[in-house]
Specification:
mainly alpha, two-stranded antiparallel sheet, about 425 residues
Amino acid sequence: MLFKPKVYMYDFPQVKMGEKRIMLPLFVLVALFGMGSWLGVNGIWMELPLTISSLPEAWSLPSYLAVTFQVANIAPILLTILSTWKPGKVPERPIIQLILAVQIMAMLLLSFFWHRTSIIGGVSHSSALLSLSFFLAMCNTTSNIVFLPYMAIFPMQYMTALFVGMGLSALVPSLITLVQGVGGSTVCVNTTVVSVVNETFNRSEVVQLPVESAPVFSVAVFYGLMTVLMCISAGAFGLLLVLPFVKKHHVKQLHSLASYSESEDTKKPLKDENGIDSSCESDIPKHIDERSRLSLTPQQQQSKPMPTLTFIWLLLLEAFICALAHSVLPSIQAYSCLPYGKRALHLSICLSNIANPIACFIPLFISTNDLKWLSAKSLLGTGFSAYIVFLAFASPTPPFQDSALGEVLVVSLTN
């Protein structure tokens, strides 16, 4: 008889979230896994204040990156088409493993080759940074449509952990770059200058020369830290696949209902006491139907369908806001911020990525379902965006360039 080892089970700490309880280790693993969703793109964007001054594109580098990131959206588009064409045939786990592996390799290569350039069309370009950014952007944009379906195997409350992790993908690089700094502040250092008087006599004197301070650590070290974070995210996903206590929290996926084999009983229509056909309902497990019903709030259960015009207006509003936030403003950020100094660009990028995940918690405390309130906020944000665009057009001599007010305004309005 083969020896069978004992498996010891431990009671892991649980935390109450609303009316449900979550297992803390599982919540942490899902959050670390979600951190790998947008870590690559956010990390590259965080280092712009330092890479702009070192690469040939200079102030145009954000524009090149914005175009690269948008072209990378071809990956999720193709995956969506494939999923529609072959429903249920696209496995999430291998794709997630590929996404994490490609990001680790790309970030590792960036730490060594981010500064490499090539001559293309007679002009020097940052070929290494742009090409590796393309692969990272493909992985990050695809993660949105792959991570969420994978999370369907866990109870609904763990979806919050995934969104927390996505917020960490912007928050953690921002905190690292705040520690890193951008240098650039001028300090005076004592330097010995030797001058030749004649063949037998040299004169030396100590003078003070202005020198720009360097950041706390280099761009290569930063990308190395991003590689470590990506490895942590990949390790968390590996643990989600193999740990026994994680598997115990799996729930039956809704799309697995389509694989139920039809028996003679299910082929026959079932009638309830009122004569209503309930054959479809009989195929759905009771615990899934009950969980779906309980997940709705009383307001959701009593809500009316959204009017078509309201739905179209919200879609157009979201498209306009996303165009501003992810294409227009990032591509001109160097022109709007750098006239006020490297510190202004650094703070604008870092603080905006810190404010973004914090703003996601506001709807938990303040209701934002009113259409007029949403439209008013969007109009206010459009006004701020218009001022930033104006600063980019006025570059390199925007208003309040030589005063602290200009730096405060551009940093505040970009957040």
